[in-house]
Design a protein that fits this description.
With 152 residues, this protein is α+β, with helices and mostly antiparallel strands. The chain contains two helices and nine strands.
Amino acid sequence: MKIAIVSGKDEGPTKLNAFDNALLAAGIGDVNLIKVSSMLEGNTEIQDIVPLKPGSMVKCVLSSITSDNPGDEITAVVAVAIGENLGCVVEETGTNENPAELKDKAIFMVKYMMEIRNETIKEIVVKEITHKVEKIGSAIASVVYLNDEIVG
C-alpha cells in the first residue's frame, strides 16, 4: 500500500470556497475525496503526492477545519503509525489551541491504537498545518491512499 501525507491552507469568500482552496493548496482539490476510517496495511510506503486524475475517486483520512472568525488560529493534524502487520491513522483539529499540544495528542492516540492491537511501531509520521484566519480560512491535513487507478 502506498500513501501520501499532504496539507494545505487558504482563504476564500465562503467556508466552502476556503475549504476547496485548502484542498487545492494540498494538491487534492481536483478529485472526489472518499473519507475512510483509519487503517493501513502493514509496511505501508509513504511517498510524495503525485498528480491525480481529475474527477477520480480518492480514498483518504481527512482532518479539516474552517473558520469565519478573523484572528482565529486553526490547526489540522494527521498522525500515521506504521507497523509490520498494519498501520493506523488519526486526525485532530483545534481552534486557538497550541499546535504542539494537538500534535502530541494525535501521537498519543495513534500510539494507543497500535498498542491495543499489539502492533510494534516501525515509523510515526505527523503532518500539521496552522492558519491564522483573515476573513474565512480553512486548513486541511490528509492521508491519501494511492493506487494506479487514480494516478494521472
